[in-house]
Amino acid sequence: MEKLIVSACLLGTPCRYDNRSKPNKEVIALASRYELIPVCPEVLGGLPTPRIPAEICKNRVIRADGVDITKEYEKGAKIALEIAKKNDCKIAILKEKSPSCGYGFIYDGTHTKTLTKGNGITAKLFEENGIIIINERELNKLK
């Protein structure tokens, strides 16, 4: 069975900044065809749940209170990549808009819910390492 790396929040794990999850029935249903490997790069990087919201601003991850937590995001991304490689995952299903997992569009760093083109820290690292990234609205891209 092919393995997919998946944002843990999409599978129902309450690991988001607000201590909630974003379970997606279609993503969860993929477990009948794929082995799903859950990851939360923010938690893997040592961040607590709940936590102060963060956004990418000028290639840095900045919390809403101004604290730079780029190092934690980079650490979590590296660990998530190690997990993906260890499990031979070629595809990742990542939570859209996230400063870690967002792909294509992320929040712009102003903490005003404004989207801009860009990728989260983990999504960027996955892409650089040849992992195909889709978000929860693009499941039709799977075979």
Principal-axis shape equals globular
N-to-C SSE string, H for helix and E for strand: EHEHEEHEEEHE
> Whole-number average pLDDT?
96
The number of domains: 1
Number of DSSP strand runs: 8
The poorly predicted ranges are none
Rg from alpha-carbon coordinates: 14 Å
Spatial sequence of strands, sheet with the most strands: 2-1-5-8
The protein's oligomeric status is single chain
Structural class: alpha/beta
Beta-strand percentage?
Answer: 25-35%
- Main beta sheet: strand number and arrangement? 4 strands, parallel
Query: Gap between N and C termini, in Å?
Result: 13 Å
Contiguous helical run count: 4
| Helix content estimate | 10-25%
Write the layout of secondary structure elements.
Layout: E1 3-7, H1 25-29, E2 35-39, H2 41-44, E3 54-57, E4 60-63, H3 70-86, E5 91-94, E6 103-107, E7 115-119, H4 121-128, E8 132-135
Parallel strand pairs: 1-2, 1-5, 5-8
Antiparallel strand pairs: 3-4, 6-7
Helix pairs in contact: 3-4
Can you walk me through this structure?
The structure is a single chain. This protein is an alpha/beta fold. It has one domain (3-98, 119-136). Helices cover 24% and strands 25% of the residues. It contains four helices and eight strands; from the N terminus they run βαβαββαβββαβ. The chain has helices at residues 25-29, 41-44, 70-86, 121-128; strands at residues 3-7, 35-39, 54-57, 60-63, 91-94, 103-107, 115-119, 132-135. Strands 2-1-5-8 form a four-stranded parallel β-sheet. A hairpin with a 2-residue loop joins strand 3 (54-57) and strand 4. Helix 3 crosses helix 4. The longest helix has 17 residues, at 70-86. The mean pLDDT is 96.
